[in-house]
Amino acid sequence: MKQKVIRLSPPQLLVVTFLFFIILGMGLLKLPFATTEQISWLDALFTTTSAMTVTGLAVVDTGGAFTLFGEVVVMSLIQIGGLGIMSFAVLIFMMLGKKIGFKERLLLQQALNQTSVGGVIKLVKYLFIFSFIVEGFAVLLLATEWVPEFGWKRGLYVSIFHSISAFNNAGFSLFSDSLMGYVGSPIINLTISFLFILGGIGFTVLVDLWKSKTIRQLSLHTKIMVIGTFLINVIAFMMIFVLEFNNPNTLAQLSLSDKIFASYFQAVTPRTAGFNSLDYGNMERSTLLFTILLMFIGAGSASTGGGIKLTTFVVISLSMIAFLKEKKEIRIFRRTIDQAHIFKALALSMISVLLVFTALFFLEMTEHDASFLSLVFEVVSAFGTVGLSMGITGSLSAIGKWIIIVVMFAGKLGPLTLAFSLSRPDKEKIRYPKEDILTG
Amino acid sequence: MKQKVIRLSPPQLLVVTFLFFIILGMGLLKLPFATTEQISWLDALFTTTSAMTVTGLAVVDTGGAFTLFGEVVVMSLIQIGGLGIMSFAVLIFMMLGKKIGFKERLLLQQALNQTSVGGVIKLVKYLFIFSFIVEGFAVLLLATEWVPEFGWKRGLYVSIFHSISAFNNAGFSLFSDSLMGYVGSPIINLTISFLFILGGIGFTVLVDLWKSKTIRQLSLHTKIMVIGTFLINVIAFMMIFVLEFNNPNTLAQLSLSDKIFASYFQAVTPRTAGFNSLDYGNMERSTLLFTILLMFIGAGSASTGGGIKLTTFVVISLSMIAFLKEKKEIRIFRRTIDQAHIFKALALSMISVLLVFTALFFLEMTEHDASFLSLVFEVVSAFGTVGLSMGITGSLSAIGKWIIIVVMFAGKLGPLTLAFSLSRPDKEKIRYPKEDILTG
Ligand SMILES: [K+]
Ligand SMILES: [K+]
């Protein structure tokens, strides 16, 4: 029996793992008992990529096209993808933490005492336990709405599916109109949004909030994330409330309480969640443009969310202000942000813009029936792994579906592997410790 | 008689000068003998802003709505705006030159020996003489086409108007379909494009090319501009040729020779010129998206052109490559580009994106009849002071026209005044020397 060393770098491992589950899932969804009617290989691939990257864009109706088995495959991929990304992102923070919140690494090391492989496993274990507790608790809350509606069995199942989908910011729903049927339901609106905000703010932020005894002790990253999330959500709420107030297809038909719930939900969902309780196909174009910005920004680092990340957006905004004020340093909360971070934030955003632009350029050549705005919306949604759509996903051409598949994959794994590469202290690849494996 | 000191900073002086001529022009265009039919104050303001910022977007048909007097007003504003911008930009390079082509300042000082006010005046004199010689020479070339067509008087006048409009990258034409009537004319295509490429590459580049005896002597800025201009034009030519080849509304109907001329012209015009020999309202959406990118990039620094500038685009591209390759330095032509320049290029681009995005957001609220793509096209055209349009300028709402006016103004003066502010060695404002003025 020979000892072997896996020579894949962590980003390579991540990519290979993702591809493995995406292809495995595709195979499973092609089984005769996975779908109610046969779906194409491409549609199966699209679905599993969307699930594994926790995007939520759907070419087939999740609740209608799949059997229970098919739905469980999708749900499993969401859970694997979401937790996988989170674990990997936390790993980056921990092992090679060079991101904005310089304290996280130390914090996590103290909190979880992982300086060895055992530590890493322990950390991931904590993450898993935390996720399952949150998801389990949310199932109970969601069941109070859905068990009375669908009965025990179906009601619990629907609750589990949506709890997993929401916490992992996947945006997949068993209802063909997402959560539009629950536009005014406090329990659904609040539980689902609580889940995806918690999942989207980043595990390190949660650990920091848990561990820190005073506000002063909080890391810069945590402060930016908490205050930034609050501010951007309040601003988005007000904008959507005002912009859609008189739209007969969205808010105008609703009661004031429903208007508030709907504005709140559509304010928080674009930064990666991907559920919707209003129809994006009927929104004002100004709202859609603003939503595109929110989708591009995305959620937090080391979270189930996507996009360029809120901290990146904050750094860019601050650097623009510094530029206009002719200041050389960027300061926030009595801390200076390192030049290297600013450069990274700007370069990452530019690369993201380029990715979106390139995808859009090719889609313009293949999708003649879709409006330009709906294509921009779709591409940014795929890049930010958001899952919102103006309704064109199902009618994309084959090439169009391939483009969106690539964008979802690049949007989810690109920034992470980039961040990983850049946070390496030197050019050496990390070698995994030797360990016996069974080779027969 | 008291001595006075003008206390305006150079950027303030530039803004005030521009506003003065825009408002003066508006007054002149409202005179009864300036127009064939009365035009509104807003349309007069739009026209003079477009002329003074050498944009070329038109709410009225320049050749039809104005009398000879009105046309001369427009032509004069183009000349004043174009030369004014060029002089000011050259001044920045010379007095406080901190841009990419670090050699320019020295070069210009050596070449023109301007260390005093006299030197500045001398430099601007050279610039003016050069411009008039080029424009005069072009008039002769254009006249070989237009004098046979329109007779001596009209033919010469049309040649003068288009020569001034082209050299200053203004894009105003006396023909309601711009240069679509001359899609296959070698003399018109080549003369007009030669004018706007020369005007758009930047005066310092021309001085450098004139003064340098060997290629090695050329500044980095000159090398980037010359090679960059060549490459981007070749790429744009090939893309448009391929993308539009089968479009029955553009290239498909033309002979091969005309196809080549048309592809060439539409390849070079978006980077600020603004003339067109094909109808942008009928182009493929992929071409339009690519054209939007070209318009955003724009021409050279210290030129009559706009946009974020070709050098900025090159620096951004190189920094993205460096980022992906995990390199800390950006090198080109055996030179390293300073971190501060990279930061500036990235910040300036982000601010530009923000400006375009904000304008678009408000236009989405006011222009319900225009497609999203046509609005993006219009805003980027205004920002880059290009003047191309998919045909919606005339039917913009009053608020829409105001938004485009602001974007043209900000697009032309914003980057320059920013560049000026940022190239100041310290916070002190430059004080103009005291000089007697007549106060009665
Ligand atoms: K999502
Ligand atoms: K122009």
Automatic annotation (TrEMBL), chains A, B:
Organism annotation: Rossellomorea vietnamensis
Annotated protein name in UniProt: TrkH family potassium uptake protein
Top-rank taxon, per record: Bacteria
